[in-house]
Amino acid sequence: MSGIGAVFYRDYRQRRNNLTLIIWDLLAPLAYLLLFGVGFERMMGGTLRLDGQQLGYTAFLVAGVISMVTFSVAMNSSWSFFSDKESGIAQELLTYPVRREHILIGKIGFNVAMVLLGSIIVVALAAMLLHVPVRWSRLPILALAIVTATAGWFFVFSACAIAISRMDVFYGVTSAAFLIFMFFSSIFYPLSGVPAWFKGLAYANPLTWQTDLTRFALLGTGDPTTMLYEGAALIAFCAVCLVVAVRYLNRGV
């Protein structure tokens, strides 16, 4: 078995033995879609207009739920990374004949598999049960956005897991990141009607780039030129975070 495959299999075994994380990663976003999406749509009693299209709030929220899957899987994987560091397993892992880049690639591969599984569940539920008008021909764009964003967020949280030595600090950082990145983005609401300062913060947020690209792929909303810019920004975000994560990993854990 290659080093990448060994790391992938180890993460699979680790996650399989922790059903709580699997439920949180895959089912919690579905709860958001059903409770907030369906509930808010009925409460609003109508549709919202986005880029010339009339959309129900449930359809609008689907892309945001996929972004939440990406973010939560990466964050929970960083917790396992931090636990390995605390227990000394990470130091032992670095002594194995596996390149450190391969450790990251193996972990990313498992994260991508988890996120793709969660996204398939979300899209299938949205299309079949909630009658969201999914544009199936654009699913390759969706897959590319998911893979890029998953890698980027995993690199961010892995660097935090390596750099931070105290569990309470790490918990505080990840919890704050979850709230800040989620709510200062286009996950839950369109940005057309928000204040200028809020819009500026939201468009500097990689979760907004991913969510906009996902919404473009699923529903056809958004300007293609803007999507190209946001796609390039998401790729740059992933590349920069990769460099940072490898640098921290090379310093040791």
- Average pLDDT across residues? 83
Estimate what percentage of residues fall within beta strands. under 5%
Domain count: the total is 1
Q: Can you summarize the main beta sheet?
A: 2 strands, antiparallel
Poorly predicted tracts of residues: none
Class based on secondary structure composition and strand pairing: mainly alpha
Main location: membrane
InterPro entries: ABC2_TM, ABC2_TM_bact-type, ABC_2_transport, Nod_factor_ABC_transporter
Family: Belongs to the ABC-2 integral membrane protein family.
Protein name: Transport permease protein
Structure explained in plain terms:
With 253 residues, the protein is mainly α. The protein has one domain (3-251). 78% of the residues lie in helices and 2% in strands. The chain is built from 11 helices and 2 strands; from the N terminus they run H-H-H-E-E-H-H-H-H-H-H-H-H. It has helices at 3-16, 19-26, 28-44, 57-87, 89-94, 100-128, 139-163, 167-183, 196-203, 206-219, 224-251; strands at 48-50, 53-55. It has a two-stranded antiparallel ribbon with strand order 1-2. The two termini are 25 Å apart. The model has no long low-confidence stretch (mean pLDDT 83). One of its GO terms (cellular component) is ATP-binding cassette (ABC) transporter complex. Residues 20-252 form the ABC transmembrane type-2 domain. Keywords: Cell membrane, Membrane, Transmembrane, Transmembrane helix, Transport. InterPro entries: ABC2_TM (IPR013525), ABC2_TM_bact-type (IPR047817), ABC_2_transport (IPR000412), Nod_factor_ABC_transporter (IPR051784). The chain crosses the membrane at residues 21-40, 55-75, 108-129, 141-162, 169-191, 227-249.
